[in-house]
Structures are given as C-alpha cells and as structure tokens.
Amino acid sequence: MNFHNTLINWYLQNKRDLPWRNTVNPYHIWLSEIMLQQTRVAQGMPYFFSFTKEFPTVFDLANADEEKVLKLWQGLGYYSRARNLHKTAQYIANDLKGVFPATYNDLLKLKGVGEYTAAAIASFSYNEPVPVVDGNVFRVLSRYFDIESDIALPATKKEFTELAKELMPKENPAIFNQAIMEFGALQCVPKSPDCSVCVFNDSCLALQKKKVDTLPVKSKKLKITNRFFNYLVLEDIEGKTLIQKRTTKGIWHNLYEFPLLETNEIVDFDFVSRIIKEEILSSYTITGVEECSHATVIHKLSHQHLHIQFWKVKISDILPNGLNCNELKEFPFPIVIYNFIEKEEICR
C-alpha cells in the first residue's frame, strides 16, 4: 500500500470532527485557516464559532467596524491577522462582489493570504491539486523520508512542496492535505511521538535510523527582544480612567492600552513616581502612586518578551474623556491588559 493510501486510511479512522471540514465554503475555510495560523485548534475553535455567528457572510465581516473585529479577536494574538482579515473581507465584498478567487494563484493576491493558506483554500474549496506545506508537513515528510534539509531555508520549502505534490493523489487533493496535516498534529507530533502505534513504523526512515527526535532540521533561531512596559492606570475623583489607541506600527496596532512609559529595564517605585509627577503627568494634581501588583507580568510574544508593570495613579482632577470600568470593557485590548481589567484591580 503506498504512502497516500496509508495516510488517508489513517485519517478516515482518526480525524477530528472540526466544523470547517464539513464545508467547501471558501469564506469559512479562509476564516479557519487565518485563525489557525500559529494557533492551536482548541484555542481557535471558539473564535471560529464567534466569528461565523457574528459575521455569517463575508459581507457582514466587511461591513463591521474594525474595533468590533479586533474585540472579537481579543486573546487570539497576532492581531495583524484580524486587521488583514477585515481588509480582505472588504476587498472581496466590494471589489469581487462577494466571490472568492477560485485558483491558488489568485488567492495568493489577497492580503494576509500566503502560500499555505492559498493552497488550503484552493484544495479544500475548489479541489485544486496544490499541496499545503506547514510545520506538520515538514515534520512528517522529513521523518518518513529522512530529509535533513534545513526547513528555515526557502529552498527547502520548495523541495518539500515538490515532494508533497508527487505524493498527492490528483483526483482528491483535499483529503490528502487534510490527512497529512492531521497526521502531524495527532500522530507524528514534535516531541516523543508514539511510533509503536504509527501506521508507518515499518517504512519510516527516521524511525529505522533512530533520528525521529532530530528531524526536521531547523538551524535558524529567533532572536528574542526584551521590552519593559509601565502602564499608568489613572483614577480621577469620579473613579474614571484613561486609555489610548496604539496607532504606530508594531505589536497591538489599533488596540487600546493605558498610558505607557517604556523603559530599558524593570524600574522601581521611586523612579516611576518621579517621572510621573515631574514629566508625564505634571499637569495633574497627583495624590498617590502605587504599584498594582508586586509581581511583574511577563507576556511572551513570538519575537518579544514584554515585562509589564501596572501603576495606579490617583489624581484630584477630572479626566477629559475619562471612562468607567463598564465602558472600558467595550474596547479591544491586548489580552494581558484585558485580563488585568477583568481582575478589577482598577475597579476597587
């Protein structure tokens, strides 16, 4: 029995019942693929249901306010995905009259749609024989065929794409793509896979050569930057606070936050108190400064570690555009700030 038959038979017996597998609707498949980029299925599933309920069609998503889209996306991370999702929905609704492109090459022209996502939509919705190549596929093929090419290199992506294309049954590419991704997600997992129950344990070269733990090869290591955020949680005499929108490019673009003091290292009370009183909030009458929590929150992103401290600043003035706690919760925030608000640290 050849590779794709074995793989597909395994898939039919072991696949998870996921909502986007029960449709060929390109809108739903596109939503799911964007949401599952660098996100686990268990985490992404509730968001998929929320989006399809709130925005049943691409027109509904296109006509929504960006802040509503970001609010619904809150906690899923990589917020540029949500902004691109919204812009692409507007393009499809307004320029393409709600009709998704029907080919891999045309799908690639959509904002936020890369090779993997385009291949998934093209094969799942239109049965176009284009292979998907993601981390799962790299892992399965590198182990089965004992391929030591560095998956951090662009040339390797091409190598694996050609191999997957050769293995793919042209009459049913969708099920092959689903099968190989599911196999990597459930069976051929990154660490400590149970090879004793694997359907390929008599033909997998990595298993025969005891190289399962060393494949795939990835030499490039991501450089992590440490940043230090001090959020100033103002409280005026009416109990209201102040937030601002992050309009600069970078992390959390167009999300909201408290006034921010970014420093080069973790700072103490004396430093923050002095800067607040003398420079940042010198126009207000400050009656007290205290750290909301003694522990610094470390929020890890893919390329940055954010060391976050929250400082409550009481003032004896009335804040223009001040917001109470209930109003605050209507805005889209980075999840670390939303969690802080939910704990009602600022509403005591």
In short:
The chain is an alpha+beta fold and 348 residues long. It contains 15 helices and 7 strands. The chain has helices spanning 3-14, 26-35, 41-54, 58-63, 66-73, 80-94, 104-107, 115-126, 135-145, 154-167, 173-186, 205-208, 269-280, 325-328, 335-342; strands at 225-235, 244-245, 256-257, 260-263, 286-291, 297-300, 304-315.
What does this structure look like?
With 348 residues, the chain is of the alpha+beta class. It has 2 domains: 3-214, Orthogonal Bundle (Endonuclease III, domain 1), CATH 1.10.340.30; 225-342, Nucleoside Triphosphate Pyrophosphohydrolase. 43% of the residues lie in helices and 12% in strands. The chain has helices at 3-14, 26-35, 41-54, 58-63, 66-73, 80-94, 104-107, 115-126, 135-145, 154-167, 173-186, 205-208, 269-280, 325-328, 335-342; strands spanning 225-235, 244-245, 256-257, 260-263, 286-291, 297-300, 304-315. Strands 1, 4, 5, 6 and 7 form a 5-stranded mixed beta sheet that branches. A two-stranded antiparallel ribbon has the order 2-3. A hairpin with a 3-residue loop joins strand 6 (297-300) and strand 7 (304-315). The protein is elongated, with a radius of gyration of 24 Å. The model has no long low-confidence stretch (mean pLDDT 92).
